[in-house]
Amino acid sequence: MPLAEPEIVRRLESRQPSAYMLASLRGFGQVDLQAGLLTGLAILTALWVSGWQNGLFATLGTLLATATAYALAVDRSGIALGLQGYAGCLTGIALVSSLGNHLATYVLTVVGAIMCTLLMAALGTFLSPYGLTPLTAPFCLVSGVMVVGAPSFERIWHGAPASVASTTTGETAWTWNALWHAFFNNLSQVFLIDSWYVGLIMFVGLALAGLRVVLYAAAGSVLGIVAAWVLGAPTALIANGIYGYNAVLVAIAIGAVFMSNTVWTGVYALFGAAVSTGLTAALTSFFKPFGGHTFTWPFILTTWTLMAAVPLLPRLRRSG
Q: Are 84 and 69 in contact (CB under 8 A)?
């Protein structure tokens, strides 16, 4: 009798190297807080579609971070869910985007992936008593330090090939084309990529994770656009997804992952998405003088704050 798909996956995950490859594949999806294999595959495909350098360095970062977790005997259940690979994925993309495709960038990706695993454990130790998780903080810390420090070292710095996120400030008229581009760019910018069709593939991947997930992703993207427009952000930056990607992550995290499925959760998630949009501008201004990058800090800080408040808010309940 043919095996059901979950049974096939379970048997593969009991073996090496199959378990390692499946865990790494899930790591791509965990950037959007999703452990589904199909979601991970769709996102990996989108990253390679965006360009071979993004695909290569994302793959290297994920594989190396996951391998480090295995080598250090990190809890296997967490590894299997892809929770040790996603920070390495983002670190690889951030480094090649900021430093270019050079030998030093490969070396830094190796070091960065290892550091992501170590910081994942360190932050987990500090945050677990409060019921919080590291989210993408290891990526932000490792990539932020490396990118800011790179210009001091001539064997690492070869001039910035391109900014990690577009900083265009010119005015762009609001058109239907700009609006739907913004919707999908909000999803691709989670991975530091400005490409509507990459965002479209990722949106399909999130749809494969479930209706609740894709609805909150869509709601977060829309609210990110609306909040940025209401606050008067430059239209070009809104269209490029600069103001909306953190809103997407907050909406998914609060609405579809960490909280029970209630009306109050929905309101809470969308409020957090709007807050993260304003925080994106504030942190961008904070990092700009010393060449730092906002990355996903608005998502991290907003989600930590909202989740830390839940125990004293009786109308809100954590999932599970």
A: yes
Token pair for 194: 């400005």
Q: Whose structure tokens read 């998502």?
A: 299
pLDDT at 165 over 50: no
| 134 preceded by a cis bond (ω within 30 of 0) | no
pLDDT in tens, 230-284: 999 999 999 999 999 999 999 999 999 999 999 999 999 999 999 999 999 999 9
For the chain, the 3-state helix, strand and coil shares in percent, each to the nearest 5, are 75, 0, 25
Helix, coil or strand: residue 1? coil
Backbone dihedral angles phi then psi of residue 141, each to the nearest 5 degrees: -70, -50
Q: What pLDDT shows up at residue 5? A: 52
In this prediction, residues 214-241 reach a mean pLDDT of 96
**Model pTM score:** 0.92
> Tokens 């409020």 label which residue?
271
CB burial of residue 210 (10 Å; 0-12, 13-18, 19+)? middle
Buried (b) or exposed (e) across 192-203, using 16+ Cβ within 10 A?
bbbbbebbbbbb
